[in-house]
DNA sequence: ATGTCGGCCTGTCGCCGACAA
DNA sequence: TTGTCGGCGACAGGCCGACAT
């Protein structure tokens, strides 16, 4: 994983030269977000990329008919492109501190595209969340101008340097760096009755500079080099609708697809951006993960599965569900695509907001107790998969 | 000119529903900016649109080689497209208040493209600057937190409602609306020794909300309906580089061209944005203006001309220059284009910052005293124009 | 253990005319 | 005519422990 982009990166869109702190980036991105490694092969889904775009711009959310009428077809652009991943850089939006990643992809040759299962592939590295960190959702008192920031006791003792409790009151100056490498100074004091940890002087300028409101989260990291970092996670999904005022969203949408099509046709590099927290589409998948899920796993309607989700406390938990159907999400524009090809139902009724479609590599099928035959009377007109290469076997165990 | 977009506009990118004040928009845009009328025919230059894009993103400013390697060629996209102008809406950036326009264009058929000179065409309406308005560049005192806004005496007497001078001190509340239809209240008072007009209470919140700094300009308009409006013009060109974080600038650039090419191929509508103050590229030209300049005007190397520019006081003045060459700006990508095909030199040495290339419709050739033969020993290898349709004559006088 | 509040001090905001350019 | 400044009053910002949950 490259953290900086010294020269090779032909497009430093933001002029960002600094080396972003990887731990901090991942802490802000959350426990479920992982990035594929530089030099490996990945599967890029223009369909998913398109989905992120539509989500970010909130255009034609429900009526995809709208899209169809403006966006030309790219018949030579397959629903997935096997690519060499040449570069990955972590970024943070200058205005909002929202984390995102930039990747440089190069599609493999037409021939190699068809021999996916013969390629050496990796499952991708697990995302390492930092150990010495805490994340707190800001209260009304934390963000009001009336006072400072109340630090949870355990958090302060774990990630802040120890105070000299012989002083009265114990007090020190904390210096923390954000994703843009800006320094923020806070007065850390242990006072009150009962005693508690507080950040006072310096806190309000941070809140106003980052435009934090109650409900947003702030996180502190104490790394091995005894450096302190801080990041933010906004509660309200940005949804800034981003009034481009430069290019129509149609043109951008066309550009997204045309750039991929052009790169696929010429086997040349192209650049994409992945916004993990802004949109729920993870559209660049390690090749091994894809191959394992698509070629080594047998799923069918009625099968039970588990899937990971992030909790509000930024940890992970598993939700259970049942496969209710398998088929194309968009049969017209993206036929025979594995992108969100699995229709599912969720066990918990409160999980009604969860997406009704998932991709194979997102789920963990429970093969030990398959509920088979299916209690669902669903029957696909066209068996799945169809027209896809059959896995010839012989591939080693991938874990 | 349509000011609102009630339904017909298929793409309200910003969700903006309000009807922007046309006078205010033009006042903010400046005296040189005019928009073609809805329903007329215009000439769209993808090359100029591309230039605006590159300017706004500051990518590959000097080395166009960079662009060439990433952006595919669109051989079927001519350097200019004659279009029907279906819609024009005025907008202002939510963050910066920067004015821009959205236009919906529909390319004419291939056949009509070649018969430009046979089409009925209009020169476009002149831009009407409001009469009752004033514009002041903010001083350090105006923007400091120490005091309010010092209103120039003549300006206050002309555009503000008259004060009741029997009161001591004379004082009133002003309510002005900005481009987003937000209300701003100011206390207008006439006091001090010597007496002067001041805006006190309410001014500082306006300055901080709009993030105004010394050097920026604010303007007030008093219209016929006795309504007060205010707008801003920032001194520092935004140059925000706009860290997209959604789409790579390459993809956007491709999208710009691909959208135009797709629209040209299918004679379908497409949408563009024009940022008059952010970039110096006016790339949608009334057809009549284009026809007159390209087919009715004879220019040659050595010819003298005048061209309008905006002064710092937001009025206009003419600068003189001499044509030093005629030829393609980008012979490889846009051969036989009229976009900035005229190389010029400017009389005033202080005008060294002025662009070295202009388009025919931007200049006023001085045919009364042509400096011919040319004092410049320039000689074009390929005479200009070449391969362009010869004007058959018979077209009526266009002004 | 920690969110919110009243008390209270203080620094900055912001209104005023003086003065000068 | 108007830009900047010193003066100074008002008020919001912000540090404190009390108190409740």
Automatic annotation (TrEMBL), chains A, B:
Boundaries of every TF-B3 domain copy: 134-236
Compartments, record wording: Nucleus
Domain of life: Eukaryota
Task performed by this protein: Auxin response factors (ARFs) are transcriptional factors that bind specifically to the DNA sequence 5'-TGTCTC-3' found in the auxin-responsive promoter elements (AuxREs).
Subunit structure: Homodimers and heterodimers.
UniProt similarity note: Belongs to the ARF family.
Name of the protein: Auxin response factor
Organism: Punica granatum
Protein's gene: LOC116195432
């Amino acid at each position: 994983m490259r953290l900086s982009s010294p020269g090779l990166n032909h497009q430093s869109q933001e002029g960002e030269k600094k080396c972003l702190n990887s731990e901090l980036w991942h802490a802000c991105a959350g426990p479920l977000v992982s990035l594929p490694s530089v030099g490996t092969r990945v599967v890029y889904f223009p369909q998913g990329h398109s989905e992120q775009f539509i989500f970010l711009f909130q255009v034609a959310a429900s009526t995809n008919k709208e899209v169809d009428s403006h966006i030309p077809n790219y018949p030579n652009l397959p629903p997935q492109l096997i690519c060499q991943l040449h570069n990955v850089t972590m970024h943070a939006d200058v205005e909002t501190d929202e984390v995102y990643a930039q990747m440089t992809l190069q599609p493999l040759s037409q021939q190699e595209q068809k021999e996916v299962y013969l390629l050496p592939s990796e499952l991708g590295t697990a995302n390492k969340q930092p150990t010495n960190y805490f994340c707190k959702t800001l209260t009304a008192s934390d963000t009001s101008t009336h006072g400072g920031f109340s630090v949870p006791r355990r958090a302060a003792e774990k990630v802040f340097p120890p105070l000299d409790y012989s002083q009265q009151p114990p007090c020190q100056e904390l210096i923390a760096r954000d994703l843009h490498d800006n320094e923020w100074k806070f007065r850390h004091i242990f006072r009150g009755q009962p005693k508690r940890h507080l950040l006072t002087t310096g806190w309000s300028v941070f809140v106003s500079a980052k435009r934090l409101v109650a409900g947003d989260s702030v996180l502190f990291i104490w790394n091995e080099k005894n450096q302190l970092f801080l990041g933010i996670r906004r509660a309200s999904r940005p949804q800034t609708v981003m009034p481009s005022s430069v290019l129509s969203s149609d043109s951008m949408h066309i550009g997204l697809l045309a750039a991929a099509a052009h790169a696929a046709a010429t086997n040349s590099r192209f650049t994409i951006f992945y916004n993990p927290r802004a949109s729920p589409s993870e559209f660049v998948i390690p090749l091994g993960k894809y191959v394992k899920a698509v070629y080594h796993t047998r799923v069918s309607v009625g099968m039970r599965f588990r899937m990971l989700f992030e909790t509000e406390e930024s940890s992970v938990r598993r939700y259970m569900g049942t496969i209710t159907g398998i088929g194309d999400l968009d049969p017209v524009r993206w036929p025979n695509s594995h992108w969100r090809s699995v229709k599912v139902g969720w066990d918990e009724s409160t999980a009604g907001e969860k997406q009704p479609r998932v991709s194979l590599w997102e789920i963990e099928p429970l093969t030990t107790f398959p509920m088979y035959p299916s209690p669902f009377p669903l029957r696909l007109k066209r068996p799945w998969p169809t027209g896809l290469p059959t896995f010839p076997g012989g591939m080693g165990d991938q874990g």
